[in-house]
User: Fold this.
Amino acid sequence: MSDKVLLDYGSGGRASQRLVSGLFLEHLGNEELDRLNDAAVFTLSGRTAMSTDSFTVDPIFFPGGDIGSLAVHGTVNDVAMMGAIPRYITCGYIIEEGLPMDDLERIVASMGEACRHAGVHVVSGDTKVVPRGAVDKIFINTTGVGEVIADPEPGGDRARPGDAVLISGTIGDHGLTVLGTREGLDFEAKVESDSAALNHLLVRLVQELPDVHVLRDPTRGGLATTLNEITVSSNVCCELVEDDLPVRPEVRGGCSLLGLDPLYLANEGKFICVVPEADAEKALAIMRADPLGTDARRIGTMTDANPGKVVLVTRLGGKRLLGMLEGEQLPRIC
Amino acid sequence: MSFDILDRFGDPQLCRNVLDTLARELDGELRFMEVCGTHTVSIFQSGLRSLLPEGIVHLSGPGCPVCVTHESEVNAFLDLAGKDGVILTTFGDLMRVPGDNGRNLKKAQADGARVRVVYSPFDTLKLARENPDDLVVFIGVGFETTAPTIAGTMKMARQEGIRNLRILCFHKTVPTALDALLSDQDIALDGFILPGHVSAVIGVEPYRFIPQTFGKSAVVAGFEPLDILEALLRMVEWRKRGEARVDNTYTRIVSEHGNSRAMDVMYEVFEPCDALWRGLGLIPGSGLEIRDGWVEFDAKREFDIVIEEGPALPGCKCGEILKGVKRPDQCPLFGKACTPANPVGPCMVSTEGSCAAYYKYKVD
Amino acid sequence: MCLAVPAEVLSIENDIAVCRVDRGQTTIRASLMLLPEPPQIGEFLIIHAGFALNILDREQAEESLRTISQDANCPLSTGTEG
Assistant:
């Protein structure tokens, strides 16, 4: 194969076949995928959760992960947030011609590794190569399905006044890592993306606690935006305690420098968990027993004070509103 | 020195005690204005605003350089975006500032204009080196804190022989604006909290006219909750004694005469000029322009840019809000026609604008 | 306006200081060309848009805290480090 991805590799001809068998099957292959039929055939029983997401992260490699593993984690997590066991995923690659073949291999290998870790099979895939400039290096879409084991399943509209609001770990790590690796920002933060598959932890959680009200991953828009979605859907108020929010000093430092708010930075390996007050301690214990939840904390409570709003109680005991993120956060100097 | 000392300026217990003292000492309404967006944000973000005694009325003045960048200046840089051979560089703050016909830099970027967000003007040197066939134009906004960093960048560019860097200079100076503001009949306030980081450069001396000419108090303050509370406490005490004074409570950063080196660099490259402020209009001597000796960097001259007063935005009360005459929620457009997603006036544009802060942080 | 952050000088080379922001390991490079005199390693700078604007004065910081404590009739709480 050429050392760069050429348009030929997306032609559907022999070049495509070589790419699929030599690279994709090599790293992602399994019983279903290896048959290379037009569609995958598999059996799922009972209620099914399904989710799709497209990944366009820039840069494609970042400390703690890359676009390949992220594309698995993102979709696996979305399925698992419904109290489901993710089983199968599909992947669609759109590749800019000229992408170094080594980069593509790194990405596909990383995707394979992430699938093994999460226990999901890639059962269908697609590869397109587009002319230079038509996409930025590589975009990946993944769709995942899984069996719902929670009954009723957690949902953004199920938060109730009095519920405890928990977070599985530190916030803002992924967002700051990605920003920090972009060009033009002359700072260095010893942070890594938290990109990880949370499904094993989430499955344990819903198995041991049948009444988890909400599970959500605060990805783009960050903790504050996701909590706003929940409070609007559930018509409750979320009161957060500033001192209880887990933020790494590296992330705090980077944010102060760039004028950003960690509450609005993306996370890729964290989840918000809303449970009845009585279950809070048990939920935290389950989360902390998992390596992906060691920093789990209670960060607030749902109330009926200002329905649809997220309010932060500051260190000084004052209050401020946490609204939705308006658009992409930009570094600022004033 | 350690981070611990700095953290103590946000000590919750100490803050509560100062708040108690403030409430006890307050002898009637105290209207204060901060003229620095970072103070605006700090007051809201720390939750201080919800804790201040009721008699303390907080007004946000014209202290956000993005907000006071005049609409004709905004249109000038938007016109430059998308010009052949031009790479526009800017601080992230300016990306969403609206110009005429709903234009902004984000949209220009989507239309193919080469616009790069930088953290430091220094980063534009690298861009200029890497794109020798293009003109790299940096939009220079900001007060005396930022102007020296641009001047320093220009000096570096000259030293390195970089020829394709231009500066679109819209810098403004704070004391002249305060003078104009105080000369306005409308304005009703007891004192100013002065911008700590502008003062780090210019010192305290340039503010002496505030009590001398106008009989108002002013305190240079830092940005931690205790810095702000201490400044308020001083103002309350002086008023009780019937005094108007200028003082500096940010002595860990600000000295009486400021940073002479930064001032030298700034005035080596720039000289005072008249400037248009959004919402305030023309203020003589309140801007900075590139000196003749540095003309090769001047984007205004290169592209024949003329900045002129245009028609006011209909319904927009930003002018009165910047003067502290109106509160953001007293503007008929606030939260309705004018929101952070769709800002009409400058105060809603920047995260540090008084309307944006009011909209974003205030719990009803 | 004018976001500027305190940061601790870790090393200096060619009029550029590598500084630590907050307690973590986030560092930033800051030009020293606007400072009247060069800082020492371990001193704190206030940094705006990639340039150091001033050196933080530790004694003044402590003095301010003392004044505030007196004003508040509140004994100065002791931090983990003086």
